[in-house]
Write a structure and sequence with these properties.
Elements: E1 4-11, H1 19-35, E2 40-42, H2 54-58, H3 60-76, E3 82-91, E4 94-103, E5 106-112, E6 131-133, E7 136-139, H4 150-157, E8 162-167, H5 175-190, E9 194-198, E10 200-203, E11 206-209, E12 213-216, E13 220-224, E14 231-240, E15 243-246, H6 257-275, E16 281-284, H7 289-302, E17 307-310, H8 316-328, H9 335-354, E18 357-358, H10 364-368, H11 386-397, H12 416-430, H13 435-440, H14 445-460
Parallel strand pairs: 1-2, 2-3, 7-8, 8-9, 16-17, 16-18
Antiparallel strand pairs: 1-14, 3-4, 4-5, 6-7, 9-12, 10-11, 12-13, 14-15
Helix pairs in contact: 1-3, 6-7, 6-11, 7-11, 12-14
Length: 476
Amino acid sequence: MSDRFRLTLGQLNPTAGDLTGNVALARDAWQAGRDAGAQMVALPELFLTGHDAQGLSQNPSSQREVVAQLEALAADCADGPALALGAPWGEGGKLHNAYLILQNGKIAQRVLQHAPAARALFDPAPISGPYAVAGLRIGSPIGADGETGDVAETQAETGAELLLIPNAAPHLRGAMERRLNHMVARVIETELPVIHLNMTGGEGETVFDGATFALNPGGKLTLQMPAFDTAFAHVDLERGPEGWRIVESAFAPQPEALERDYRALVEGLRDYVAKTGASKVLVEQAEGNDTALAAAIARDALGAENVRQIDVPLSDNLHAALRDELAALGAEVSTETLTPPLRALMLRALADDAGEMLLTAQNKSAAAMGTVAMSGDFNPVKDLYQTEVQALCDWRSNTVRAWMQGPAPSPTPDTEEARAEDAILRILLKGGGNVDDCVAAGYAPQSAQRIAERIAAAKTRKGPTAPGPRLKAETA
């Protein structure tokens, strides 16, 4: 029995619903592992279908297609390392979140998620035991199963020598620290080395941040892959008197909080554009930090040559003519009321004519208080309060990174009024507070009442909004 094991980790970016494309990525990863002399190649949770392919997971014919794709992939990868990847798995009339191990031309072993996260599509399953690859017994708590100790401890007690935890964990503020704390806890409980393998890339409003890492017993970090980038890592394990240990490898520097947020917005926009089949975007040329930041994100994501920014001047004659037409129909409309929808119609027509995706640029503060926004296809700043937009504009205007592709924005300074508004909004929106709570926190009663009334009025007329990258949990 060998005392050395090489594991290739694929921190990759699948596309929801694209089984053929995802299989091709898996096959490339397997080839990279084979070339590196690996005994096993591992890919993240739900890699085959992509994490957000809900309809695909639940459709019986699609479930059969999943099995067919897995069997064909196993046959293609028979002569070389084992290949482990996540996929939905139908069994006994139930649908499970599974981790499949392809060996010797077949689906040789499978692990089922024990306790799916709240609101997940999948059914719970009994705790799966470890599986063996080239003499190494591996336990794989899937996704949420790695956040508590039950599955990992059971797998350790039944012979696991390594914990490989495949995940599709999104970028949310503070999530990386929580993730690391969970994995340290698994190491302490089991006294086994742990690898947390994460997905990267954007899918809808979710951005998976990668940042795969590994820990040895005692909690020592032995591998840190980059955040947000697709990457491979060839990880060596050696067996000594105390069991298997991970050999120290590369340590990619990790971005600080503001850079994490900005990078998530860039990756989210890039993949939303690419995965919906577009290549170019249109952004309105307007004053303010929202538009400045949205344009900077778009240029960094797509390249300046794929971003068009235009001003939409509306003449007094056009306003007058439209007001007259509406008046003839019995509707009295002011110029202030008429301008936003007119601009939106013109931008939509220009974008559609050029085959471009139309970006909205409206922050969370403005949306909560009912400010009318253009209806676009995607809103890169949707999950940012106005002061957070300011902070990211300032950061981007003073920062240079190799992955940036466009000029920096020119931010306008924030104001005491904006800071106070955001603080009140956080109390009312995030904390579930009321006007009295705002006053108790030191804010003017008139300001708190005005903002509360605007929030209430906005809720009564709230319509569909453009999607945008999610940076905070739903209650934040």
